[in-house]
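User: Run a structure prediction on this.
Assistant: Running it now.
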Amino acid sequence: MVYMGYKFRAPAKSNIDEWRRIERALNDGGDYGVATVRKQQPKPYVSSQLRIALGLYGKKRAKKAG
């Protein structure tokens, strides 16, 4: 069994020529799969002064119930 990708549409069972073409393409190294991995964006740099001003500096602490 070969994963053909979610966009692959199988031809009709009776369409033997099309099935043979797909088989030849796979044997020759063809790939019907669709890449699903998203490129990860790097996190933006935030200076230490800005982190302090935003209250993001250091470990997060749980809020005290008051």
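The two ends are 60 Å apart (CA to CA).
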